Amino acid sequence: MNQTTHLQERALQERTLQERALQDRPLQERIGMRAPLLLAGITLVGFGLLYSLAGTALGRVLFPDAATGSVITRGDRIVGSALVAQPFGDARYFQPRPSAASYDPMAAAGSNQARSNPDLRKRIDEAVVAVAAREGIAAADVPAELVTQSGGGLDPHITPAGAKVQVARVAKARGLDQATVEKLVADATEAPQLGVLGQPRINVLRLNLALDALQH
Q1: Does 103 share its domain with 189?
Q2: How far apart are CA 164 and CA 57, in angstroms?
């Protein structure tokens, strides 16, 4: 009898412990989920929001011009960006490189045509003839950059050679001495970055704005 009672009491204790464990499981599960949820929240807020805000604020402090798109203004009017080429249809202005995107920043792209593509060769041949006629030079003297498109289609720069062949036309259209225009080109020529990266280049928009400022 005593043995039976003892077994019953032991079974009751085990059942009580099992019931208590079942009751405590939701609490343990909630405690176990707290760490990953906290980590997810810190990651989302810290890296998704605070990091972005800090990076934007730091960029505005260290590089205020580049952080706002390198926008160029004249008075209260935005005339363009130093990072994006734009067309100039007037003979009084230097011309940028051709654009496969029609100078549309929302459609930046190259032509994706291989050098062996006959359409590409035809377009370049036609462009060489057109540039040579526009600048009054031989086809062999046309710089390659003035008839080829950059990879992004919005390259804002040309080389000094690309500007040199346009000096005579611009000077004649504006009634200026070639020497005056050549000096503007020289002043607008940017050295390679850090002295070794890239090659000397000229921002076409800035050069054209300097021309306009010269005659106002």
Answers
A1: yes
A2: 41
Q: Do residues 173 and 206 both lie within one domain?
A: yes
Same domain, 99 and 6: no
Q: Going along 140-206, which residue ranges are E strands?
A: 157-158, 189-190, 201-203
One domain, residues 166 and 207: yes
pLDDT at 80: 83
3-class secondary structure, 104: coil
- At 134-159, the pLDDT tens digits run 999 999 999 999 999 888 888 999 99
Taking the C-alpha atoms of residue 132 and residue 87, their distance in angstroms, rounded to an integer, is 18
Which string of DSSP letters, residue by residue, matches 25-58? HHHHHHHHHHHHHHHHHHHHHIIIIIHHHHHHHH
Range of the domain at 122: 69-214
Are 116 and 193 in a shared domain?
yes
Last residue of a domain, one of 68, 100, 123: 68
Bridge partners, 190 (sequence order): 201
Residues 71 and 209: their CA atoms lie apart, in Å, by: 13
What pLDDT band is residue 56 in, cutting at 50, 70 and 90? Answer: confident
CB neighbours (10 Å) of residue 124?
A: 18
Report how far Cα 29 is from the mean position of its chain's Cα atoms. Answer: 47
pTM over 0.90: no
Residue type (1 letter), 81 = S
Confidence class for position 77, pLDDT limits 50, 70, 90: confident
Q: Give the Cα separation of 206 and 163 in Å (integer).
A: 13
